[in-house]
Amino acid sequence: MTRQRKFRDLRTEDFIVAEDGEVLVRRCYPVRMHGDRPTPFPTLYWLAGEALVKHISHVEREGWIKRLEAEIAADPELTAAFRADHARYIEQRWALLDEEDRALVRRFDMEADLRERGIGGLLDFGKIKCLHLQYAHHLADANTVGRLLEERGLLTRPKLAPS
After folding, report:
1. Which of 35, 4, 46, 72 is CA-nearest to residue 134?
2. Which helix or strand (DSSP H or E) is residue 150 part of?
3. Is the pTM of this model over 0.85?
4. Which of these, 4, 21, 56, 137, is most buried using a 10 Å CB contact count?
5. Over its length of 163 residues, how does the chain's per-residue pLDDT go in tens digits?
């Protein structure tokens, strides 16, 4: 298998599945090929559950991104936990690449895009790009924003299939 083919074929995999069999989260490969050139894809976990996507869109329209950003910024413990979420996400994304893939990323000067950008590709770890990305990460590996959404009664954690 050629390197280009590997990047094209490993786009996503079903990662978190609900008890009823619905795919809730897909894990995305961190690099895409465009012609002969790789490009970074910083989104590691993609929310796929249709009902969850719709519900979270509604929560976003109610202004919860700004509210949660403010709450996290005002609390040093939440701020530290949120920064740790971004750091784990970066580590998980980098871990998907084998040494050959990492060498290609370095050759095309893309390492910073994958090793410095957090959830949703953000450089500012105090911001929330979207709640869908945060909640997908929460289902894959518990995070601060997902926990706050559940604690506030804005989301109910779905029953997951045994892994």
Report:
1. 46
2. helix 144-151
3. yes
4. 137
5. 333 334 344 468 889 999 999 999 999 999 887 777 888 888 999 999 999 999 999 999 999 999 999 999 999 999 999 999 999 999 999 999 989 889 989 999 999 999 999 999 999 999 999 999 999 999 999 999 999 999 999 999 999 998 7
